[in-house]
Amino acid sequence: MFRFTEKTVSGTVSWGKLSLTPFLFLVVPAFAGTYPGVGRPATPAEIAAWDIDVRPDFKGLPPGSGSVAQGQKIWDAKCAFCHGTFGESNEVFTPLVGGTTAEDIKTGRVASLTKPEVARSTLMKLSTVSTLWDYVRRAMPWNAPKSLTTDEVYAVVAYLLNLGDILPDDFVLSDRNIAEVQARLPNRNGMTRNHGLWEVKGKPDVVNAPCMKDCTPEVKVGSEIPEHARNDHPGNASRRSRW
Amino acid sequence: MDPAGRLRRAPEHFLDPRQIADVQSGRRDFLRGAFLAAAGVAAGAARAAEGDPAILELPQHSKGLGQPVAERGYGLPSEHEKNLQRRESPGLTRVGGSSVSFTPLQGLFGIITPNGLHFERHHQGWWDIDPNSHRLMVMGLVREAKVYTMDDLMRLPAVSRMHFIECGANTGMEWGNVAVPTVQYTHGMLSCCEFTGVKLSTLLDDCGFDRKNGKFVLAEGADGSGLTRTLAMERALDDVMVAWAMNGEMLRPENGYPLRLVAPGIQGVSWVKWLRRIEVGDQPWATKDETLHYVDLMPDGMLRQYSSIQECKSVITTPSGGQTLLDRGFQNVTGLAWSGRGKVKRVDVSFDGGRNWRTARLESPVLTKCLTRFNIDWVWDGRPAILQSRAMDETGYVQPKINQLRAVRGRRSIYHNNAIQSWRVGEAGDVSNVQVY
Q1: Residues 48-87 of A with CB under 8 A from B
Q2: What is the ipTM of this complex?
């Protein structure tokens, strides 16, 4: 009986054009799935509770707003401990901020990604602002994920982008202007899907030959384990062997 | 304490200078001396001429009463196997909740990874979730969004499949140069299990997914990170599973108990653990772990997004870095091969740095997107050697050399390094990690 009640409730509210009165629902069970009696319809409240993803086209982004100034307060209280006052810290996680320029904002390509000496920061790689918004909401702060309000998420995202000189100090980020922010991301044009590793039938980058005899004129050792690294991993001689 | 065979099997163990000097002076039996000292039985030494004390002097286990049944309600490995552990790589990460532990491939046999040694990768720590309160929601572009309990899922038509799981960053530390000493750290973000669950297509059908517009699927975890990854619908409908079991028992908490995604051939991050939600959509999601991480940096500064397939790869696990050959003569050389595009077709092994190759024996079963064990005979003549394995899959793709990969992808990618691994055997029998160009 309990299951039946549940089905009736959700059957009347969650189906859009298939929504039926309870009476009709009983007489003409609508879509019952392939496996009768297994699972139950999700209620709108349940879907809303879990459907927190935000896509690059901003599908799923809830209305709200937050300023750079508000974001700074949240940052200093909840984020700076791990990420540093300026998002620059490399102590706990890799840096969030650094390596982007005003020129990058014009081109949409972060030039320093070609420079080995520059440590890769989050803002150097970020190509979609939705990614940042979605992640802060679902996973931050580190030890209390999903605890920020919608407006707090807007504020923290605004402050982080301000630390990267992408947004001005007086900016108020909202669902209404986030598309404009997307158009300022330094690496918005820096992502490609033109490769063979997405589809099983994709084309590999390199083709090696299954040569069996006299394959290389010269065997050259180009790199070997440095002496200092030989015993720096756990389980070494001092801890003895398997047998 | 003595090596059972003539190979020192230390998970990581390089000879110290004194030991190398011993070996070079011809004292290849120095470990035997250590064994006798450790045995500490004076009588044993005195009777050594008569034979092996392990035979001549009956041990306690032959003369006393052993342990009763059910002494351990859940069995444990032997005390003598304690050193075989999954381990972190020092300096690789700084927070245990967002880190990796590596499977000790050098100590495993066959193709199945014991559940307690399966590699771990958590993004915000692991949990032991009560299965009674765990739910899976399937929603988005479906006729009916549904909620399933674990009981519901386990009533559905189940399948059991053996597959490897490999982190996209496996061997990632070696893109620049040789960096780590042993196969545990070069290749240990790799495991293989028999998984049991329900095909994702079964659940998508049950919810009446939109076959016209439903081009992508999002999988989301119930942990703090709420880890999310996009799958193309073609993949989702092929062989992806929603699994609750590994190797005959429920999943381990560190591996997603009570429910995880199994995405054969695709990098491990897509095998979402503690799976709580599946959403059908018409576009990919560009989530954090497909935009900021798990993107391959190319030499021109472009980042490859949604690089997912684990291409054909192999590695010799014995002998491998950190081990020591104690004698010239016969050795069984063994290793693992796999491909995210299908079955392994052939594995060739070279003992001279890639100049000449011989084809290894593949042990059965040889399954699609599953580890395959290979073995090959070798007689070590005591001279330096460089061992390599090169796998080919059923598409005809041949595992590349590191310099072939670097010519296209540079040296700064973190992901999808499936290059041929080289182990150098020194004159002292010490095996170390090298790259051959």
Answers
A1: 50-53, 55-57, 59
A2: 0.90
Task: Please name the residue of chain B whose CA is at the shortest distance from the CA of residue A187.
Answer: B302
pLDDT at B5 over 80: no
Counted domains in chain B? 2
Question: Using CA atoms, how far apart are residues B344 and B340, in angstroms rounded to an integer?
Answer: 10
Is B68 within a domain? Answer: no
Pairing mode, if any, of strands A191-192 and B303-304? parallel
B253 touches chain A (CB under 8 A): no
Burial of B388 (0-12, 13-18, 19+ CB in 10 A): buried
Chain B partners within 8 Å of A92 (Cβ): 94-95
Q: What is the pLDDT of residues A22-51, one digit of tens each?
A: 444 444 455 667 899 999 999 999 999 999
Domain match, B183 and B225 both? yes
Multiple choice CATH, A65-182, 1.20.58.220, 3.20.20.140, 3.90.180.10, 1.10.760.10: 1.10.760.10
Residue B295 lies in domain: 115-304
A207 interface with B at CB cutoff 8 Å: yes
Nearest to B103 by CA among B181, B192, B176, B179: B192
A 113-132 → B contacts, CB under 8 A: 113-114, 116, 120, 122, 125-128, 130-131
